[in-house]
Amino acid sequence: MRACALVLACLLALLAAAAPAAADDALRPEVDALGEGSLRDTARAVGELAATGDPAAVPVLEALRAGDLYVRREDGRVFAGERDGRDIRLYDVFTGEDLGTVGRREALPIRVNNNLRSTIDAALGQLRLVADDAAARERAARAIFQSRDPAALPALETALAAEENAEVRDAMELARAAIVAFEGADEAARIAAVERIAARGDREALSLLSSLARAAPPAVVEAATVGIVAIERRLAFWGTVQDVIFGLSLGSVLLLAAIGLAITFGVMGVINMAHGEMVMLGAYTTFVVQEIIRTTAPWLFDWSLLIALPLAFLVAGAVGVAIERGVIRFLYGRPLETLLATWGVSLILQQAVRTIFGPTNRQVGTPDWMTGAVEIGALSLAMNRVVIIVFALAVFAALIVVLRRSRFGLEMRAVTQNRAMASSMGIRTDRVDALTFGLGSGIAGIAGVALSQVDNVSPNLGQAYIVDSFMVVVFGGVGSLWGTLTGAMTLGVANKLMEPWTGAVLAKIAVLVFIILFIQKRPRGLFALKGRAAEV
Amino acid sequence: MARWLLTRTAAGLLVSTALAGGALAQDDGPIKVGILHSLSGTMAISETTLKDVMLMLIEQQNEEGGVLGRQLEPVVVDPASDWPLFAEKARELIEVEDVAAVFGTWTSVSRKSVLPVFEELNGLLFYPVQYEGEESSKNVFYTGAAPNQQAIPAVDYLMEVEGVERWVLEGTDYVYPRTTNKILAAYLQSHGVAAADIDVNYTPFGHADWQTRVNFIKEFGNQGKKTAVVSTINGDANVPFYKELSAQGVEASNIPVVAFSVGEQELAGIDTGPLVGHLAAWNYFMSVPTDANFDFIDAWIEYIGDENRVTNDPMEAHYIGFNMWVEAVEKAGTTEPDAVIDAIVGVTVPNLTGGYATMMPNHHITKPVLIGEIQDDGQFAVVYETPSTVVGDAWSDYLPGSDELIADWRAPMRCGNFNVTTGTCGGGGDGEG
């Protein structure tokens, strides 16, 4: 909502800047025509507006594309508008002048569908080819590449002759090649264009060549086929790499969900069925942090996840300590009762969150630095996935350091290995128990912050991860953090390598069967603890 | 056979005692209306809203003087997203609470779970959610869409307007997606789509890692033919699916996704900026600019006390179903189930999108089909509307076996699965009455 309002504000600023008062009424008939009749009539009006070649049309078309143009019912005039609660605030489409709010019954939004949006993109492409901003020119060239509209060719040639930026030139040449490959009169030019496109080597090029190969003269088809084969070979290689990276990404999600459990279940031996709810609490903490930032300090939004991290750790950690002190400490050594009691706690937490925040999903936004993609070779990796992989490994490293290098880690290991001895050495074992459980829960909370970026934030969030988490910890070897890391990554990659062949349902079953068989052979998992500690 | 006879006799006895009870209870006390929606567990996310809208509708009706001069009294129970518990709670509503009608259930499993109870005790159930069809019961009124009121018009739209030639049918692994996709695949092939141009895939409930599938969809869509995804993905799996679509840059202008289970409420958990242009097919959208809809939204927001709450298609279905029941009771002059069942066929009430809904003899209703595109504010903009309403088809014409069946609960036929080829009623289907 806020982002949308911001875009609108920018558009309005553009409107105001781009349109000198004299140009207003020149375009008025074309603009008002946008609001008349069906979608097809609007598309025709867009063409006519674009044909004027007037730069003042650009912001109008952008507003139309964003669905921000409204027709006033009484006189059919077109305005820019913004939803204001249940009312609509209208602005003059050229000057951006604020015309106050009207009820939603008085002004109707102009309908836009995918086809119309493509038409607008093509029209904007032509108008924007001469924009001052290089990125805008490049986008315009890409839009023409997509639409392959022959009408754009003259404008493209003119722009190309004047273009100095190498990247934009490249995009423009590709766009020209896309048009020529389909519509060129001269066969040699078409084949050259096909080769130019094939050299691009990505999916879009493949898609374009495939549709070309179905309707063109034989020589062009042949060139296209050669290009298709080359691109497919290249993509096949990268496809395997991609599957492995998908696997690592799934593995890092599993690792995040399971690593807290590796402490509470792995190290302490507590079967904590409420572990997933700690993840959920972390995700809801993120939501609350973002809500507060939205209402009080929007400029902090890009930092919201970093702010949420310590808070999520504290919230989930505190709840964890409370559960340990309130329930679990009375049940040490009675795994079945612990399981049932923590299961009950998980239901209580779920219903509490449902009562406080409502049963529906909550929206957690993605900061700008986590959107977009990283290009490596023919791969494009979603930025949010890359961040999660790095983050999971960082949490893992931090945990190892805490356990190996800090006094608390030392006490914790001492207590879990030999409680009586640790106690007689002056360690307050019940305090260590509470803190250890708090640490495991807090880390689950941190995981919740990351998972809010890829999954729903709903009261059921935790349930989705509890089974997978136990699977990872048991498979990796109870009590071993390295086992949890290896287990998570192995399961993730195995799942993703299998999925393209078997489908998600079968892949999941196969992994489960594999774990069952594996546990039969090695009941202590991948990394079994050895020596006396294992016997305790 | 013996067992069947036994249950039949038992049912008959129960019905007659219920009738006797009903006759004795002809007083001025309130009429009880059952609300059978999960308020806890996984389905609470969708069903709690429907409980609230029913309470609002009953309150409004009471302000207008109730029904037959008597007030309505809602009886809310919580089946907790637990399918067998649905049957128990349904029995409790009818036997213990003696409700005149029940509005409830969401998933097909929960409907199948309560169906025998309603048929045995002769209760009335209004089912407000789109479903896979292939069912018609004397005791159930299907106010949500059958596949021909949602899936098929959506596919038609994509074929005709967007020129789609290649299809990915992506669903969650259970009965609704599987049946719908079977119908759709048959329909597409009958319209000249090659089998190689259709990819059907199922994922488990709550599937959260969509990287591989979205990547596959991109690959499948880059074969030079316009490609679309038809999504019957259910519930919680949708949010990660849409998040992955936007993370991998799948834009609606290249590969549109049309969904049958994603409405305003599901979108509330997602930033819809990158999803603009993806589609959904429903019979109602909150954005429909009719006065009836504006009034409904105003009343809803006032009732719930939250400016940001949305309305959605199943809420409209309850609105229609409730008004139909009220009118049928007024027409029959009693809440007695058999009289209401006879009276309700043909009852016509206004819907919220500027038209009318009629209860058909097969216990499905007439609905307009709307195609909407997702907007950046989490709403849908209607881009297509069927020129007239569509009659819900209980038995699909595109499935072998099912194409021979019709349902008609009026006298003399009174049959939920009449085979027009053999001219007999029944074939062991659910509609056996």
Count of helical regions of chain A: 21
- Summing up helix and strand content along with how strands pair, one would put the structural category of chain A as alpha+beta
Q: Tell me, briefly, the overall form of chain A.
A: globular
**Beta fraction of chain A:** 5-15%
Range of helix content of chain B: 25-40%
Order of strands, widest sheet of chain A: 4-3-2-1-5
Which pair of chains forms the biggest interface, and how many residues does each contribute?
Answer: A-B, 75 and 67 residues
Query: Which regions of chain A are unreliable across 5 or more consecutive residues at pLDDT < 50?
Result: 15-23
The overall strand count of chain B is 19
Strand order of the largest sheet of chain B: 7-6-8-9-10-14-15
Radius of gyration of chain B: 22 Å
Whole-number mean pLDDT of chain A: 86
Report Rg of chain A.
30 Å
Average pLDDT of chain B works out at 89
The count of β-strands of chain A is: 7
Number of helices of chain B: 12
Helix share, percent of chain A? 55-70%
Major beta-sheet overview of chain A: 5 strands, antiparallel
| Total number of domains of chain A | 3
Distance between the termini of chain A: 56 Å
The assigned structural class of chain B equals alpha/beta
SSE arrangement:
The complex is a heterodimer of chains A (536) and B (433).
Chain A: H1 2-18, H2 24-33, H3 39-51, H4 57-65, E1 69-72, E2 78-84, E3 87-91, E4 98-103, E5 107-109, H5 114-128, H6 134-147, H7 153-162, H8 166-183, H9 187-200, H10 203-212, H11 218-267, H12 275-296, H13 304-326, H14 335-357, E6 373-376, E7 379-382, H15 383-405, H16 407-417, H17 419-424, H18 429-451, H19 463-476, H20 481-502, H21 504-521
Antiparallel strand pairs in A: 1-2, 1-5, 2-3, 3-4, 6-7
Chain B: H1 2-24, E1 31-36, H2 44-63, E2 72-77, H3 83-96, E3 101-104, H4 108-121, E4 125-127, E5 140-142, H5 151-160, E6 166-172, H6 175-190, E7 198-203, H7 211-221, E8 227-232, H8 238-247, E9 257-259, H9 264-267, E10 279-282, H10 291-304, H11 313-332, H12 337-344, E11 348-350, E12 356-358, E13 366-367, E14 370-374, E15 380-385, E16 390-391, E17 405-408, E18 415-419, E19 424-425
Parallel strand pairs in B: 1-2, 1-3, 3-4, 4-5, 6-7, 6-8, 8-9, 9-10
Antiparallel strand pairs in B: 10-14, 11-12, 13-16, 14-15, 17-18, 18-19
Helix pairs in contact in B: 2-11, 3-4, 11-12
